[in-house]
Amino acid sequence: MALKKKPVTGMKDILPKEMAIRNYVMNMIRETYGTFGFSAIETPCVEHIENLCSKQGGENEKLIFKIMKRGEKLKLDTAKTENDLTDSGLRYDLTVPLSRYYSNNANELPAPFKALQMGNVWRADRPQRGRFRQFMQCDIDILGEPTYLAEIELVLATTTLLGKLDFHNFTIRINDRRILKAMAQYSGFPAESFDTVFIILDKMDKIGIEGVAEELEKEGFAKESIDTYLGLFREITNDVEGVRYIKEKLSDVLEAGIAEDLETIINTVESVKTADFKMSFDPTLVRGMSYYTGPIFEISMDEFGGSVGGGGRYDEMIGKFTGNNTCACGFSIGFERIVMLLLERGYEIPTKNGKKAYLIEKNMPADKLLNILKQATEERSAGTQINISIMKKNKKFQKDQLAADGYTEYVEFFNRD
């Protein structure tokens, strides 16, 4: 059997230039989120299959890389279903593992607990631009904070990070799952059909409001309900006035305080933000995960043409493990997409003292080489990045390669010096 050079479909090799960007972004994440009080944690990449298949991960539960039982536990001859063969799987996100982690370690953690988690996740998805089967996720979560302070801190921390990475004019779209349900209830849709309605609504940006109407009709919903429902979206504006409209229009079905809290989140973030972005109330925002219980948000960037991050409140997930609900809210940036956009725009990592290359003539005597290494040590101690290599015959090509890697200064050393 011939060996294969290319990685498995949906996976990728990471070359040095991209790895340098990734490391820089990860360091910036730790530094920035650290100033907001988030503590780094780590969870295993393998999770119990019961946790992964708990009907909290939406469509992602169909994309699990399952792991077969091992040793005597694996009984192929008596297995009747797939569940008889598997007992664990690769995590498809970081939220389910975090909930297990918190439920297992809560007594040793502060309250509220602000967690930062970065790590690879795996989904047996169809690969496409900016989407792989193995990819890095970066989550920040606040556990044990019931007020909108959690949402405000998460949005400010995430947008501050994006601003430091030189992203501008992006949009934080925000909605609330309870507003979604209230709009559907007000329009007369049966409660058991809400998920179907939301799945169709989630296509609004692709098929438009008329397309949503057609799909709702195909599902057999009453025309009166469809007209009432879509009429709401035609009236709502994407700002706090839209939130106030919802509050007034849905006063009989929307729980008191929800609209007011959403307005406070929007106004507060807009007042204290440090990055160049806007907050937008988007009543069509659904977020696919079934575990969201309150405010939800996404980051939209025109240069990507879609979402590069999202999150929301999930106050009931930890209770699945402990029996007692714990307030929880999280925000995840699309790490892979952020790195891809930085690479596509030719982003240069800021350096204090630059990158310098030492090119040494072949067969340099040991005593002279020692002096060169001492000089390099001094410059490295001062913060300069020094790359030492032997001169090639084609020095121009060698310098071009170094230049492509960000080296702007060269020092050549010859035997005769």
TrEMBL record:
<dbReference type="InterPro" id="IPR015807">
    <property type="entry name" value="His-tRNA-ligase"/>
</dbReference>
<keyword id="KW-0436">Ligase</keyword>
<dbReference type="GO" id="GO:0140096">
    <property type="term" value="F:catalytic activity, acting on a protein"/>
</dbReference>
<feature type="binding site">
    <location>
        <begin position="93"/>
        <end position="95"/>
    </location>
    <ligand>
        <name>L-histidine</name>
    </ligand>
</feature>
<dbReference type="GO" id="GO:0016740">
    <property type="term" value="F:transferase activity"/>
</dbReference>
<dbReference type="GO" id="GO:0005737">
    <property type="term" value="C:cytoplasm"/>
</dbReference>
<feature type="binding site">
    <location>
        <position position="141"/>
    </location>
    <ligand>
        <name>L-histidine</name>
    </ligand>
</feature>
<keyword id="KW-0547">Nucleotide-binding</keyword>
<dbReference type="GO" id="GO:0004821">
    <property type="term" value="F:histidine-tRNA ligase activity"/>
</dbReference>
<dbReference type="GO" id="GO:0006427">
    <property type="term" value="P:histidyl-tRNA aminoacylation"/>
</dbReference>
<keyword id="KW-0067">ATP-binding</keyword>
<dbReference type="Pfam" id="PF13393">
    <property type="entry name" value="tRNA-synt_His"/>
</dbReference>
<feature type="binding site">
    <location>
        <position position="137"/>
    </location>
    <ligand>
        <name>L-histidine</name>
    </ligand>
</feature>
<dbReference type="InterPro" id="IPR006195">
    <property type="entry name" value="aa-tRNA-synth_II"/>
</dbReference>
<protein>
    <recommendedName>
        <fullName>Histidine--tRNA ligase</fullName>
        <ecNumber>6.1.1.21</ecNumber>
    </recommendedName>
</protein>
<feature type="binding site">
    <location>
        <begin position="291"/>
        <end position="292"/>
    </location>
    <ligand>
        <name>L-histidine</name>
    </ligand>
</feature>
<dbReference type="GO" id="GO:0005524">
    <property type="term" value="F:ATP binding"/>
</dbReference>
<comment type="similarity">
    <text>Belongs to the class-II aminoacyl-tRNA synthetase family.</text>
</comment>
<keyword id="KW-0648">Protein biosynthesis</keyword>
<dbReference type="InterPro" id="IPR041715">
    <property type="entry name" value="HisRS-like_core"/>
</dbReference>
<feature type="domain" description="Aminoacyl-transfer RNA synthetases class-II family profile">
    <location>
        <begin position="10"/>
        <end position="350"/>
    </location>
</feature>
<dbReference type="InterPro" id="IPR004516">
    <property type="entry name" value="HisRS/HisZ"/>
</dbReference>
<feature type="binding site">
    <location>
        <position position="287"/>
    </location>
    <ligand>
        <name>L-histidine</name>
    </ligand>
</feature>
<feature type="binding site">
    <location>
        <position position="123"/>
    </location>
    <ligand>
        <name>L-histidine</name>
    </ligand>
</feature>
<dbReference type="InterPro" id="IPR045864">
    <property type="entry name" value="aa-tRNA-synth_II/BPL/LPL"/>
</dbReference>
